[in-house]
Specification:
Elements: H1 5-19, H2 23-29, H3 32-47, H4 54-79, H5 84-94, H6 100-115, H7 119-126, H8 139-186, H9 198-207, H10 209-222, H11 226-236, H12 246-256, E1 260-261, E2 264-266, E3 269-271, E4 275-276, H13 285-318
Antiparallel strand pairs: 1-4, 2-3
Helix pairs in contact: 1-5, 1-8, 1-13, 3-4, 3-8, 4-8, 6-7, 6-8, 6-13, 7-8, 8-9, 8-10, 8-12, 8-13, 10-11, 10-12, 10-13, 11-12
Length: 319
């Protein structure tokens, strides 16, 4: 069955690319990530209090949340038959945890008004995928934010869950999504979460080490300019505030020949972030279109790599 895990991820990607997560489904049952978010919020409200040691209760929250997803996902994995039907069923169960279509659609929703010169519309669209204040962004700032989100979330939202699903099946993809959701909700460097979210943030950094670098590599290979894209990535990735986000963002910046990251405004304060591909021009609306093309090519390469991975036992057995 382990050899079937990459094939399950191919099914998940294909189903998600075809139909995404339909609005009518979300309206009726929500989404597995929102279910996990409710659990995290409930535990955080009860355990993140001054009378408790916050690192300890944060670690307990992490453990409880992982247990909540690992027990049912392990049970489901064990119940799957070890044949094509099991691969199909496993892929369908993994499908909600892959965001190929929604990632593209969210960035395309920024691209359309940006190309049309509708800056207010582009700001509204980009506010749905980034945390910075969109009202302070000019055209280049909106394009930069969209490309950075596209690069980083390709890693966090697609490559990483698919990688862990291919390695460990349903438990792998479910555990990764819970860790990533924990990091997005409590892994912040603010007074309330600095200690409480420490364990979740560190674990998120760890589980994204390989996928972030793999995403950067996919972008570089899909760019048609692997030496340029890879050179910028290898030179600048470690300058990023995140140990992982600089790899896909650096490859994106090198591919498109633009600068990304750099100073930005959060909560009224300027964060003096370093540039990736410093000295290159700011991205334009056309850069977002180019970034989406790169994304689509990278996703095709990811699917091809998974198919090859799934066929590896057959290939090696035949030789």
């Amino acid at each position: 069955m382990i050899a079937d895990f990459p094939a399950m991820m191919v099914v998940a990607i294909a189903v998600d690319r075809l139909i995404g997560w339909p609005n009518w489904v979300y309206a009726r049952i929500g989404h597995p990530v929102t279910w996990g978010g409710r659990l995290i919020s409930s535990l955080e409200a009860r355990l993140n209090q001054a009378r408790f040691p916050r690192r300890l209760t944060g670690a307990v929250t992490l453990g409880l949340c992982l247990t909540a997803v690992l027990l049912p996902s392990i049970a489901m994995q064990l119940l799957l038959p070890g044949n094509a039907l099991g691969v199909l069923a496993g892929g369908l169960l993994a499908w909600p945890l892959v965001a190929v279509r929604s990632m593209h659609d969210h960035v395309a929703a920024v691209e359309k008004p940006l190309i049309a010169g509708d800056l207010p519309g582009a700001r509204r669209a980009v506010s749905k995928i980034v945390g910075r204040n969109p009202d302070a962004l000019d055209e280049a700032g909106v394009a930069r934010a969209a490309l950075e989100s596209l690069a980083e979330n390709t890693s966090d939202g697609i490559v990483a869950p698919v990688f862990w699903g291919a390695v460990a099946g349903l438990p792998g993809i479910a555990a990764y999504k819970m860790i990533n959701t924990l990091d997005s909700m409590i892994g912040h460097r603010n007074p309330r979460h600095l200690q409480f979210g420490w364990a979740s943030a560190r674990l998120d950094d760890l589980v994204n080490l390989i996928p972030a670098r793999a995403t950067g590599g996919l972008f570089a290979l899909a760019s048609g300019k692997p030496l340029r894209a890879g050179g910028v990535m290898l030179r600048d990735a470690r300058r990023h505030r995140s140990p992982n986000a600089g790899w896909p963002e650096g490859a994106m910046a090198g591919t498109l020949g633009v600068r990304l990251s750099g100073p930005r405004i959060y909560d009224g304060h300027v964060a003096p972030e370093p540039w990736l591909n410093e000295g290159a021009p700011d991205p334009s609306p056309a850069s977002v279109t180019q970034g989406l093309r790169l994304y689509r090519r990278a996703m095709l390469m990811l699917a091809a790599a998974l198919i090859l991975w799934a066929l590896l036992p057959v290939i090696t057995g035949a030789s």
